[in-house]
Amino acid sequence: MNEDRRDTIVEDIKRVALRLGSSALSRSEYYKHGKYNHYQIYDGGNDWTTLCELAGVIPKTRLPVADEVYFLKLTEAVEKLGRYPKTSERKRFGLNFSKRRYPTLRSFIEKALELGRIPNLFKQDKELNRFLSLGIPELAGASRVSTIPGHELIRPIPPIPMSSKRSKWERTGLEGFPYAPQEEQGVLALLAILCSRGDIKWQILDLSANGIDAICYDEYEKREIRVELKCLLSKGSWNHRLDDLDCVVCWENRWRDFPKPVIELSRLIRAGKK
């Protein structure tokens, strides 16, 4: 985000806070009354807290939910189901803790087992239970395979293919897509993964529609948006009319003052690891 754009957003945050007559402002309140959307706010690596501080406004943030609350919810889910909840049932039972706290539902269940908060239902799977008791995430050279549907397990990072012509193999840290994309198809695959996980609040509706790479549904703005995909966004590689799109998704952005919102996936992933 260039300084002019940041300054106009800061001024708009001041305006919304003054209009609401409050010295504190939440993101949802700003999105309802402000001029800029989620992607414009975070374009360029800025965050809500920093922008509010520049505007002299107190950022409203949610207080973190204590682990004890989630342990109680997990206990209730196990008692009701007679088994551990599946990943698809997290929202149903209020197990929506952040990935920074517990990267997967499986890791949270293992922590609850370690503390004795829930019964060990893995006893029916003796081999898997042996791995858990020994603290061995996986056997050398082999993946762990769960016999319990819906539960995530740590997956090994596959080796670089011997026949590949690629020279760069940057890690993403994402299961299922361990290496950085090298072309637009890779950016599309990575975008699909992040959308399915809810890291990007879009749903992909159509591909290669009328010259634009993707049509997505933006869950924040409640509308369809036209998205252009680029592995590397730069002035030299640009060949589209700006009026034909709403947003660009790329792996790396070298055009920092691009006049449309840009989601830079490499920056987004790095921010998620902090």
Write a structural description.
This protein is an alpha/beta fold and 274 residues long. It has three domains: 57 residues; 68 residues, no CATH class; 103 residues, no CATH class. The protein has a five-stranded mixed sheet. The relative contact order is 0.08. About 11% of the residues have low confidence.
Residue-averaged pLDDT, rounded?
A: 82
N-to-C CA distance: 20 Å
The helix/strand class is alpha/beta
For the largest beta-sheet, the strand count, sense and barrel status come to: 5 strands, mixed
What share of the residues does DSSP label as strand, in percent? 15-25%
Order of helices and strands: HEHHHEHHHEEHEEEEEH
Task: Work out the radius of gyration.
Answer: 22 Å
Strand order of the largest sheet: 5-6-7-8-9
Number of helices: 9
Number of domains: 3
- Which ranges are low-confidence, i.e. pLDDT below 50, for 5 or more consecutive residues? 124-153
> What is the subunit arrangement here?
single chain
**What level of helicity do the residues show?**
25-40%
What is the global morphology? globular
Strand elements, count: 9
